[in-house]
Model the fold of this input.
Amino acid sequence: MPIDLPPLAQGELDPAPPSKKAMFTRLSDSPVLLADGLVSMWLDRESGAKCFMLSARALYIVWVDTPQYWRWISLTNSRFAEAAKLRDVCWLEIRGKMNSQMLSQNTKYAAYMVFKIDDEHYGLDFPLQEAAVSIGGNRSSRQACLLGYDNADDEEEMPENYRSIMLRIRRFRRSTRRVPPPEAHVQLPQKRADGWMELEMGEFCNEGGDDGEVSISLTETRGGNWKKGPIVHGIEIRAKK
Done:
């Protein structure tokens, strides 16, 4: 049970758990909001490590407050009250950051974009996006495609809009050479139990907690192609085996 828990939003632990064991169970069963209401936290059940989710409001999203490009939408039965819906941009830039001191020491983490794709979408299959994570001067990046689906063989369990998306991607790959060859590694999203999708953006190790900020980004700024469709819930930072 970590002793350095951050301040929580008022009423998040009412009534207060009667013991450390009960507190651990509570925090590993479901997330709680931090004091600012923009970040949630929970404990990894196996390791006890602190995990966090940055809401869309806690992220830096270029043009997010310009209604022509993005729109804030209300959510129900979700961790946060709002998500950012992409209406139309040619410059996609989403960034999150967290002080490494808030994370558990000597712990391997992974960062995940949590999102959905609206039925009306375009421009997300090419050019590919770049996902990156950096900490303490070390940076890793990978190619990613929001319009993929990592469980593509299990089409019966795919969301309906993703089945049609995958069909279009397959047709596109047959008709153009702009998409990387099959052997090229492109990170694809996976379906979550809560109905959202998640894209693993990268891994990092938080050693002593003194490496400053962890920076996480998803960008596509070089192609000049217009894009529409992602609904951004936030970025999760979770302990990873």
Residues 176 and 234 are 33 Å apart (CA to CA). DSSP finds two helices and 14 strands in the chain. Residues 160-175 form the longest helix (16 residues). Confidence is low (pLDDT under 50) at residues 173-177.
